[in-house]
TrEMBL record:
Cofactor(s) the protein requires to work: [4Fe-4S] cluster
Protein name: RiPP maturation radical SAM C-methyltransferase
A Pfam family it matches: Radical_SAM
InterPro entries to which the protein is assigned, alphabetical: BchE-like, Cobalamin-bd, Elp3/MiaA/NifB-like_rSAM, rSAM, rSAM_horseshoe, rSAM_ocin_1, rSAM_sf, WH_DNA-bd_sf
PROSITE patterns xrefs: B12_BINDING (PS51332)
Domain of life: Bacteria
Lineage: Bacteria, Bacillati, Actinomycetota, Actinomycetes, Micromonosporales
Species: Micromonospora antibiotica
Keywords: Iron, Iron-sulfur, Metal-binding, S-adenosyl-L-methionine
Length: 647
């Protein structure tokens, strides 16, 4: 049996497809006689399109990263799906004209016109290799491109079996794809390591025994599979209720990707990264599913690979491909890895650079352990700096804990990826205005990538539980521009949904956006650090909204309070811990907030100055000498002793 696995645009070109890599190994392990080939059509598209129009890396990112919520990437290939270069051009233009630049609009229209030609050439090439089965992985904006290519293949060679799987095929989405697009013979819903090889075996009875499928009628036994029944109607087998055990999660094979990238013009655009997977599901979501999150789809149950096995997989990939940068796709860090996997990575002979998703309540030493192991970027799911809104999200953290994460990541040299979300039922402007007022003090910490109203995603509590505040859900407007389907089918096909807006809007949302934008602009030139010298604490500041540059805390009470505020505390808690009167602490914290030293939320305070690194110590010494010289000059001119606590 000859199997071709296709990775269509607009998946990222700087990383291999984890799904294709896993399925390649799964088929080879369970059907050793099968021929498996990966088709990296995302790279094929780059090489094809640069010869026909002005197109660069930023344009690819525009579709793969930045326009997901607008659906531009899928709309581009809708012309190929319906074999019509003018497919809903006017409707698309009317909808987006005010939302993008003239160049962006022109590029969308040009690629929409060209897409049928690319799909036709790709389908010709695939069919010429006479595969028995062609499988497509579909995540984010790959759906229309995958469907269009499957249609073109079936038109040229009806005997080739077409299969789709991936995140866009989970649950009702996969069933809707199979019902509405007859040129897709099978849809694999859920985890494919077992189901896809079983499907191949059912299609090739001679190999059925190898994977435990029955030669005849085996399709009905494959959990989650959508297939055509004897009467021609679409059949959707019940999905598995038991997630794949971690020991059965297959390591990926990326050899084909690196070979193809080496021959692509994209090799000059990007530095490739590895994609690794240590866990699936979310241990926090099992207890408290964040109200807006639909990322885990049908399987929330958390399970992770043995740390020794995951370490071996990482090192094997590094040594095989000579790549040190890697993206870990786990939706949340297995906390046991902090004391098992991470120390081994720290002690390895490789200077790894990893990106990971974590929970934002990790403490400073844990964050430092991440940095020591090679993590350079984390996505901790901060989402807000207000405790009340975070409770509406069911995040299990406070605003001050999120500030602690930003501060400690800055100390450890880790970049934070996060967005400030709003639009939650029950929120008010009082949940945002105090945060906005304090943002100038935070300009030295990693800013949000932007502020945005939440999107309603399939599988999220907001989608499945209307009592949480969102009713009257409709498929997002993009789907009506891409697909020629009735509303009822779009409801099952869609992942994103439009709803009447909730929470803040208008001027409050605009103020939040302006404050976040200013934070982004000021971050590179802002600084606030502290250095604890034992009997005093020296702080250095360079922030546009604060006119002091060096502050020395020498009073024993102030030093003790600052150290206690390494963690969030209320005034009453500080008073009990330090045996200091509350009015004294209240006055001190009010003054420190005015100086931009602390963040306040929900009655708690936390100091916001990362620990000074070596370059900051040199700056302190330089500024200290400058200050002493200035004090000496001022004292000599005034005839008074020098006594300044802040410069």
């Amino acid at each position: 049996m000859r199997v071709m696995l296709v990775n269509m645009p607009w998946t990222s070109i700087d990383v291999p497809s984890l799904a294709i890599g896993i399925l390649t190994n799964s088929v080879r392990q369970k059907m050793p006689d099968a021929e498996v080939e990966a088709v990296h059509a995302n790279l094929d598209f780059v090489d094809w399109v640069v010869d026909r129009t002005e197109f660069g890396l930023s344009d690819y990112y525009y579709y793969s990263l930045f326009t997901y919520f607008a659906g531009c990437g899928d709309w581009v290939f809708s012309s190929a799906l319906y074999d019509d270069p003018q497919w809903r051009v006017q409707e698309f233009t009317d909808r987006v004209r005010t939302q993008m630049t003239e160049r962006e609009l022109a590029l969308n229209l040009e690629l929409h016109r060209l897409a049928p030609e690319f799909v036709a050439e790709l389908a010709d090439r695939i069919v010429a290799q006479a595969p028995d089965v062609v499988g497509f992985t579909s995540t984010f904006q790959q759906n229309a491109a995958a469907l269009a290519t499957a249609r073109a293949i079936k038109k040229r060679s009806p005997g080739i079996r077409t299969v789709m799987g991936g995140a866009n095929c989970d649950g009702e989405q996969g069933a809707a794809i199979h019902r509405n697009f007859s040129f897709v013979d099978f849809v694999v819903r859920g985890e494919g390591e077992t189901a896809f090889p079983r499907l191949l075996a059912a299609l090739d009875p001679a190999r059925s025994a190898a994977v435990g499928a029955e030669p005849a009628g085996g399709l009905a036994d494959i959990e989650g599979l959508c297939w055509g029944g004897p009467d021609g109607r679409s059949v959707a087998n019940p999905m598995s209720t038991t997630p794949l055990p971690p020991a059965e999660i297959v390591a990926p094979d990326y050899a084909g990707y690196f070979e193809r990238l080496a021959a692509s013009r994209a090799q000059h655009w990007v530095e490739p990264r590895l994609v690794v997977e240590g866990a699936r599901g979310c241990w926090w979501g099992e207890k408290h599913h964040c109200t807006f999150c639909g990322l885990n789809g049908s399987f929330m149950q958390f399970r992770s690979k043995h740390p020794g096995r995951f370490y071996d997989e990482i090192i094997e990939l590094v040594e095989r491909h000579q790549v040190l940068d890697m993206f870990v796709v786990d939706n949340i860090l297995d906390m046991s890895y902090v004391t098992s996997l991470l120390p081994r990575l720290t002690e390895s002979d490789y200077d790894l650079r990893l990106q990971y998703e974590i929970k934002s309540n990790m403490k400073g030493p844990q964050v430092q352990a991440l940095a020591d192991a090679g993590l350079v970027s984390v996505q901790p799911g901060i989402e807000s700096l207000n405790s009340r809104v975070l409770k509406l999200m069911d995040k299990g953290v406070s605003g001050c804990l999120n500030i602690r994460m930003l501060r400690d990541a800055e100390t450890s040299g880790i970049t934070i990826a996060w967005n400030y979300l709003y639009g939650f039922p029950g929120e008010t402007e009082d949940d945002y205005l105090p945060v906005i007022a304090q943002m100038p003090a935070l300009h030295h910490l990693c800013p949000a990538d932007g502020s945005t109203r939440i999107a309603i995603e399939r599988f999220s509590p907001f989608f499945v539980r209307p009592e949480l505040g969102f009713t009257d859900l409709r498929p997002a407007a993009q789907y009506r521009l891409i697909y020629d389907l009735p509303e009822s089918e779009l409801m099952d096909l869609a992942y994103l949904f439009d709803v009447p807006p909730q929470g803040i809007g208008g001027e409050t949302a605009d103020r939040l956006d302006r404050a976040v934008t200013e934070w982004q602009h000021e971050y590179a030139r802002s600084r606030l650090t502290h250095h604890d010298l034992g009997d005093e604490i020296v702080l250095v500041s360079r922030r546009r909204h604060f006119d002091w540059h060096v502050l020395r805390l020498t009073d024993p009470v102030e030093v003790a309070v600052f150290r206690q505020l390494d963690q969030p505390h209320s005034v009453s808690a500080l008073a009990r811990r330090l045996s200091v009167d509350e009015p004294v602490l209240t006055a001190l914290l009010r003054r420190w907030r005015g100086l931009g030293l602390v963040y306040e939320d929900a009655g708690q305070f936390i100091q916001i100055a990362p620990q000074a690194m070596n370059q900051d110590l040199l700056r302190i010494d330089h500024l200290h000498l400058e200050r002493e010289a200035a004090e000496t000059r001022a004292a000599a001119e005034a005839g008074e002793p020098a006594a300044l606590s802040a410069v």
